[in-house]
Amino acid sequence: MKNLLHLICILVFATSSFAQDLWLNFTRPFPIKAAVPSGEGLLMATSGGVRYRASTADDLYTTSNGLGDQSVSAVIISKDAGVFSVSDNGVISLMMSDGHWVIQSRAYAGSNTHVIPGMALAGGPVLVIAFEDRLSFFSIKTMTSILTIDRIADISISANAVSAMDIRGDSLIVAAGGALYMRKMDWDKLEDDVKLYDPDSWKIIQKASSDKTPIKSIAWKDNEIRTFSTEGMRIWDKDGFTRVALDTFSVFTDTDQMVTVRGKVLKDSALYALDSVVTTVGNKRNVRFIYKSIVRWVSLQPSGQAVLAGPDKVFHYDGKKLTDISDYKSFPLESVYELRALPTGGVLAATDNGRLSYYYFSGDDKDFRWSDPVPIYPPVPAYANGPDARGHNLKVLSVLPTGGAMYHFWGYGFFLYKGWADTLINTFTLSDTGNSYCMDNWHEGTSIESIFTIAVSTTLAPDNMGYLTTSASNKGYSLVYIDIKGESTTMSCASNVGSTPIGGPMYARVSDDGKNWIVYVGTRAGPSLDANGGLDVFTFPLPKSKGGDISWVDSTYRETFSGSSSTPLDLVYEPKSDNVWMVTNSALVYWDKDEKDLKSPLSTNGLSGASYTSIDVDSRGNLWVGTSSQGAYRLTPRKTSPDTLSTIHFTTRHGLLSEKIQDVAVDTVLGMVWFAHENGITRYKRDDLRGTEKNMTNDAPEDVKVYPNPFRPKMQAFVSFANLADDAVVNVYNRGGKLVVSMSGDQISGGRAAWNGRMDNGNIVAPGVYQYVIRGGTKIKKGKLLIIH
User: Fold this and answer.
1) Bridge-partner residues for 374, per DSSP?
2) pLDDT score for 14
3) Which CATH architecture best describes the domain 29-219?
4) pTM for this prediction
5) CA separation for the pair 364, 356 (Å, rounded)
6) CA distance between the termini of the chain
């Protein structure tokens, strides 16, 4: 299905431009908020999109497939119009026959309320949607809202939220405040129902109990309505009774409340969780242990099989055996907070719960996949940066071009890995009393006696043979250099050289004359994200001249620049302009080596009110900025001045999984930009992101390619010229030596150019053999192109 969707996207974009802009989301489809039986499985509304799960099928639909929002509260199967999804914010989308989704309405999205999970149904050509404080009726025929009400009969549903809902023919049944209400509906003419807004047009069919116990589910037996105080499905049919509900029981011999499929009680322990109930009588506290079902939705199959699901689990039952089919194997990670682009293409990801995984091309699968997650510290798998990762906006992943990675565990130390975090090979921590490391102890000089090493960032050393980081100290942070010399790894420190206690985001490079290292460090006055900060710039001779040691570096090698009133969160160096760019919570700032202070751009049309989290730069000097709630921006500084930026804004409408972005990483090898979200990762692929610096030179990884050849312009959209230099000029001549087409400049994107086989007047060129000549970089490429009608 995904390959089909990708092909559709490619064809759509090919008709408008050559650049292929493809979005792909990676997420875990949990928790499950609602589910409806469909085919041989369940169609589920989850925090990661819409998932269809059966014993032999597993499909996930997200914003990259057209869903209007990533977190979905309800899925509706309408006999009249097909499959709809309703997001938490009330965005309504319709599933097309090719598996793509099309947004039908955002009318409810700005109402500042949320859909109650599972509370959306179809009554003929009408969708009934229960929000936290209202009940809305939406016309499928006109794709517009009919009416929204906040009272039914004697109750305010803005004060007593809907707890269950059902449609039975022309009757809409709603549970709220512990009572049950019903109203007759003419679904086909609901727009003409002048009394729809009248609370008195509803009648009470079941009064609330004295304690107003909520009605959580509705079922039918022998055409009589049944209500229950627990969520779930109860089905009476000719094959026997089925109960899949969040009921509780004390012992496994108490089968009346256990999961039952067609009269058969399922006692598999995987279906139940141990819970406890605490009661207090006088001064005595009593604890009673109970079991609770973890599944509440079921899809029954004629074969006797079934698919069962709860908020966090999905099972397949074949009539005898229960199998856990919860795992979504396409993406193995949970909450992702940091990304680092890999030199070979792909990305390395770090999660809040202390796991590392990377995206790479698998020769066995002949496709890209995510590696199996590994703990940051295998001896203690529970180690994780947890809330510190976001609380301090950590950027602590770094990778070597030749393979190898570094990671900082807040408070503990630094880990070095072989490959892309495949194997832990070295640990630097002050707790290791067998070695004398020069890192600082943040608690030194305080009343706290424990050892606590903290760093906000790590970065690749300019010689590509080690890493740089900092260690925080109240005397001023220290620069830390980890030098990798074959099998030997050493650490040295320039102690207390920082202008502030904490060093923030970092970048390092070799000076233009090759004689010095230049290290940029965003500074933080304290560990919080609202502390004052600025920029330290260190310039010192190559460490190899001192045997790989930097302990001789002191504050005389440092310049300090201010101008930002808040903490730098992320930093990039843009080589084309020789500028350093940083983001704080509320500002985008840059440093020009000819300036004395940090500056904010004067003109940022389309960029306002954002709270920033991250920044990266592509090979063309475009800045990619992530925000905490407004999605992402691509900012293009004017060539003559960084004070003027043109802006492109990306949101879930374009394909982002979420508009909450924690980190951004640009992959110039595969031509992708990656975005980290709490619930997953977004990959955005476009041709102009590919690095082209080595194209058409002696160091080019690939030669110029022209394809398809032969080219059939009546059947194929374009002939492509790939692996071109940015300054390339592509000329195509006919057999008589006459120039037919010439392409250069903006017609070349990401090392590629495309020709549709037509002349300036729009006519397709004559069939025959054509000569192409491509000049660019340090090369000239010539060849023949056969055009066939």
Assistant:
1) 356
2) 33
3) 7 Propeller (2.130)
4) 0.86
5) 21
6) 32
